[in-house]
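Researcher: Next sequence.
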Amino acid sequence: MNNNLENIKNIYFIGIGGIGMSALARYFKFLGKNVAGYDKTPTQITLDLSELGIDIHFEDDINAIPDQFLNKEESVVVYTPAIPKGHKEFEYFQNNGFTIKKRAEVLGIITKNVYTLAVAGTHGKTTTTAILAHLLKESGAKVTAFLGGISENYNSNLILEGNEVVVVEADEFDRSFLQLYPDIVAITSMDADHLDIYEKANALEDSFVEFSSRAKDHLLVRNGLPLSGITFGIEDSSDYCAKNIRIDNGTYVFDLKTPGKLIKDLRVNLPGRHNLLNVVTAFAIALLYGSPTGSLAKALFSFKGVQRRFSYQIKTDDLVYIDDYAHHPTEINALHQAVREMHPGKNVLAIFQPHLFSRTRDFASDFAKSLSQFDQLLLLDIYPARELPIEGITSSWLLEMIDNTNKKITFKDKLIKEITDSGAQVVLTIGAGDIGEEVGRIKEALLV
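Model: Next structure:
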């Protein structure tokens, strides 16, 4: 790696428990660097990092930083843009002349001199990246992959097979992806989101256009997006397209039309049309990279999914429990479509934790429409993440707009009783906040 990171001994992470940050922490630990960090709360991710020998603390306290990381000649500080203003540790590093880099800058350094495949989009990028990394690894490529979720196949958000090719999730939040140096780029979607950063939708679109121009070899775009490139889609006229789609014993089977051939009877164990699109995207990138078709088909069938992306926790004839990260109306609609397709005629209870006050405000009417589709709805308080409350923007305010007679506000300590009282045949926990931390508890109670 250039930019002096090779000579750095110590890497300190502010926000080390974040999904993207923790992948970098694992990577540098693997390279033999000293790694430590701060995060707000303990989670399974921070526990897993601690087991690798990474020192993590949960108080914003300069005295808690291990001594060697205070040597500014030998240390780099990596931070997430999600940390709050006035963070004491961050201000200390800033005021004392440390080298401080955003997560995206570090990914930029890593990708600069290695062949890089980058997946961008407001939805679909995590699953697509995880599928792509799995396809490449299983077909023999020496791949390093930084994933925005925990792959079920590897129980990790980092795959380290070698440095022939890097797979990276290109994050549009805070325009981070403009730091990357991709050779092949795929753009899955450009729906309005992160309006707290971009303020208006066309500014978000402009940043995707700028990112797409960074692709050195190939640009793939979902059919219908306002960009010109190699297209991918489902049952349409795209260059790479899923055709003849059917469901066989809970598994999608389809044919993939490519510019040069038809690949028949591909099988994938992921529910939902949105996931089929993710599969087509990943397969197209792998083919353009030059992976052998036969081993790709086999690898695709063995892909198990990403944690918190339509993750089956319980799947019996009487009860299904699925956990999903959906936090945007488009994603909730995709989840609803998948649930109805896979479990037709079942009574579905959705438990949703809105993520960010600004997103709840900006997409309130769309959230109301998407959440109205379920048979029953429980709404948790808004998860603030990096934000302070916005006056008048609450879950009760959102609940008023939802056209569903079986709807109510609930709290985490009431969840299990509410679920068992509901009589629902399919239970969904939905959201990008800390609702994921409740999954184990809910699953255990439902299995009793």
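Model: The two ends are 51 Å apart (CA to CA). The mean pLDDT is 92.
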